[in-house]
Each structure stands twice: as structure tokens, then as C-alpha cells.
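agent> fetching stored inputs for the zinc ion docking request
agent> found them:
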Amino acid sequence: MRYYLNKLIFSINEFMYGRYKGDELNRFLTIVYLIIWVISFFPYLRFLQLINTLIFILIFYRAFSKNIYARQKELNSYLKIKNKIKSQINFTKQKHKNRKTHLYFKCSNCKSNLRVPKGKGKIEITCPKCNTTMIKHS
Ligand SMILES: [Zn+2]
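agent> prediction call returned; pasting C-alpha cells
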């Protein structure tokens, strides 16, 4: 029994050697797969099972892929999008937290976010990134 178990583990290891295996993107895809799996039980959402089949194939394709470089590029693109969304959520939270004391503007030149104290009347704002000045009411 133990012999066959070891043999099985050895052949799995041999099969997986040089393959990409899992990463954060595959974990994310697995969560999406499970969520879609649950909601696809609703009568009008059956078509989602088709999308889920594609996600399932994609997860296995990525895990067994030997093109590590391409898979890492996909992971990097995913992480870039994820971090962008994460920082946008954090910024919105912060904006809400400071809503009584500060106002937020976008720089008219470089579109970066600028924070100014509230209730100061007419003020001149200088963007710290591009040095553009704007007149605003706070
Ligand atoms: Zn600027």
C-alpha cells in the first residue's frame, strides 16, 4: 500500500515538474468559479455554467502550463488591476473619513488627487506633482 502511494506521489511530482502549478490568479479564479457555481443554480442564470466551464479549463490550463513566463505575465497584469482597485477603495474610504475637514480636487493638468482643508474660502492650490496652480473654493 505504502509502496503504491509513494509511487503515485512520485509520478504526480514527475508530471508536475516544470509546470506552473498555482498562483494568486488561479486562487482568485477558483473563488470566482465557486461563486458562479452557487449562483448558476438560479433558474435564469443557468447559462453561467458555460462561463464556469471556461474558467475551469483556464484554471487547469494555467496550472499545467510549462510556459512559466507567460503565466507570470498574466499574474502581473492581474496584480496590477487588483492593486489599482484596492488603492481606489482605500482612497474612497479616506475621502469619506475626512469629508468634514477636507475637500478633494483633481489636478487639471496631471489628474492627481489633491486634498485641501475645508472652509478656507478662496484658495490657490499648487499641485505637488506638476506645480500647476488652480483657484478653488473650499
Ligand atoms: Zn498636477
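agent> quick read of the result: The longest helix spans residues 68-97.
agent> awaiting further instructions
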